[in-house]
Amino acid sequence: MIVIGSGAGGGVAAWRFTERGYRVLMLERGGDPVPGRDHLRNHRYAKYGQNTGPAREGNPREFVDSGVLKIVRPHEPGYNNNAMALGGGTRVYGAQAWRFHPLDFRMATTYGVPVESSLADWPISYEDLAPFYEEIEWTLGVAGSNPALNLPSRRPYPMDAPLISKRGTMLQSAAGKLGWDSQRVPLMVNTVERNGRAACIECQHCVGFPCPVEARGDTHNTVLPMAVASGRCEIWTGTQVTSLLTDPSGRVTGVRAMKDLTVVELSADIVILAAGAIESARLLLASRSAREPNGVGNNHDQVGRHLQGHYYPGALGLFTDPINEMRGPGPTVAVTEFNHGNPGIVGGGMLADDFLPLPAIFAAGTRPPQVPAVGLRLKEWVRHGYLRAFRITGPVQEIPSPESRVTLSPDRLDRNGMLVARLQGTTHSATVETAQFMAQRAGDWLRHAGATEVWESPVDLHLSAGQHQAGTCRMGFDPATSVVDAKQRVHGHENLLVCDGSVHPTNGGFNPFLTIMATSLRASSTF
Question: What is the pLDDT of residues 427-453, one digit of tens each?
């Protein structure tokens, strides 16, 4: 068996299949992240580069912005780089371990299908995923509190939430004044020593960097070591798969890859694609044959469509006295009141206080509209505001559009001779309405917490992909409108599974990594 990608989906798939007795070869395009704490070259703020792959040169993408074709490098806006490294995005993620809401799986039934959208129900339900959510939470380790009242009951987490901060206490009180129920933000972070990994040291470099003490539950320090320890898993890093191999009947027989500047062909009875929504779609599109001239699984022109990420609307609040205690990871209290049931709004989202920003991020993006991007006023704002201001934000339920998509460039190649991905389109206008509604709720929460000034983030229509990318190989019953079936097998290819966020028909109003892990675990357990 070959697994392509070592992130949330691929790592879990390798672990479960080795448990079941399969031999696994994992192919990972990246390597270990660049060590250090470079505030200008990391996956949270890639001003001059990033600490993960791919390399800045030789790995472009095309981005169509308002009809204008741009060539973008991995660290530049528009690339939508989901970290390429051993462990994938989990090496640098924030580890907010949310389950999706039950209605997230029934969006079309709940709201209808907005005009020009491709909103669809999932072919599986929350109840189908619940046991796999729980297995991930307990095997890898989640810390948190009881769920909010509008979320399903579940087994308590194996670890308590971190000690609450001063601002967290204020937010809990403010939510109560507004009549909103709240809960602690669940994190896949050790709050006590567990499974041979240290407890969180509350540093200020959680998101965007590898954890310095391995307290955060990434795939490279949880499921991948278990897979390797079985004696049935081998991992090749620095290996980019450039096409899937098929026989005349269409059955996938293996992969072609570039390793150490050498083309290799590898045979496998089963192939699992877990490279992220952009790269998984790109690989399927690039794998052409006489039987499928438009790419594997793409006879109905569905591969690459419905690309989603997450809008992150919110508000910035300024307080009179210092409120930020500079203890990581940052997110403490969340409100889930508005994930569904908002009059006139399709879906909704979760709101919580944000991660501790790097000073460079604070200066660049956490500032009021009247503060310029450079100069004395900016320096004055940073000096005064860094300890007194913070953001309330969160992901909203995006409404997919069939024209928001991944295609292939007709002629531009990467360093390994593979056609690069082209990103184009925008999310649906209903997403903008939802985001504006959620920004207003964030502002309300900050005002009731005592903020003296509040600035709600502006929202516009744009392509959304980012690190929470989803949707390009959506799951469904009908091959004419989906790419994989309910077991995540590519239609017409029973030995080809997709185990990443690309299979999600909708992306939920929460951080999606736990759902990527749960769907991957389900597919790997029932194959």
Answer: 999 999 999 999 999 999 999 999 999
pLDDT, residue 515, reads: 98
The DSSP H or E segment spanning 317 is: strand 314-318
Q: Are 334 and 183 in contact (CB under 8 A)?
A: yes
Spatial CA neighbour of 358 closest among 37, 10, 132, 89: 37
Query: Above pLDDT 90, what percent of the chain?
Result: 93
With 0-12 / 13-18 / 19 or more C-beta atoms within 10 angstroms meaning exposed / middle / buried, residue 492 is middle
- Structure token digits, residue 84: 């390429």
Asked if residue 195 has pLDDT above 90, the reply is yes
State the alpha helices, DSSP H only, in 91-231.
Answer: 107-111, 126-136, 166-178, 223-229
Structure tokens at 1: 């068996």
Cβ within 8 Å of residue 234, ≥6 positions away: 24, 25, 26, 228
d(CA 187, CA 415): 37
Token pair 């600490």 in the structure block, residue? 51
Strand runs labelled E in 77-147: 143-144
Closest by alpha carbon to 211, among 385, 383, 91? 91
For 125-138, what is the mean pLDDT? 98
What gap in Å lies between CA 40 and CA 47, rounded to an integer? Answer: 5
| Averaged pLDDT score across all residues of the chain | 96
Give the pair of three-digit tokens for residue 492. Answer: 């017409």
Rounded CA gap, 218 and 223, in Å?
A: 8
Query: HSE of 142 in the Cβ direction (CA atoms, 13 Å)?
Result: 26
Are the C-beta atoms of residues 504 and 262 closer than 8 Å to each other?
no
In angstroms, rounded to a whole number, what is the distance separating the alpha carbons of residues 193 and 281?
A: 39
Q: Are strands 496-498 and 143-144 parallel, antiparallel or unpaired?
A: unpaired
Which has the minimum average pLDDT: 187-191, 325-329, 399-403, 457-461?
Answer: 325-329
User: Taking a C-beta distance cutoff of 8 angstroms, is the pair 120, 156 a contact?
Assistant: no
Structure tokens at 255: 């992969």
Contact of 192 with 199, CB cutoff 8 Å? yes
For 348-366, what is each residue's pLDDT tens digit?
999 999 998 999 999 998 9
Q: Which 3 state secondary structure label does DSSP give 176? A: helix
Query: Element (H or E) spanning 405, and its range?
Result: strand 405-413
- What is the phi-psi region of residue 241: left when phi exceeds 0, alpha when psi lies from -120 to 50, beta otherwise? beta
What tokens does 345 get?
């709004």
β-pair type (405-413, 419-424): antiparallel
Give the Cα separation of 499 and 472 in Å (integer). 12
